[in-house]
Amino acid sequence: MSAIYEFTANSLLGDEVPLRRFEGQVLLIVNTASKCGFTPQYRGLEDLYRDFSPRGFSVLGFPCNQFGGQEPGKASEIQEFCSTQYDVTFPLFEKIDVNGANAHPLYEYLKRQQSGLLGASIKWNFTKFLVDRTGKVVARHAPTARPEGLRRQIETLL
Question: pTM for the complete prediction?
Answer without folding.
Answer: 0.95
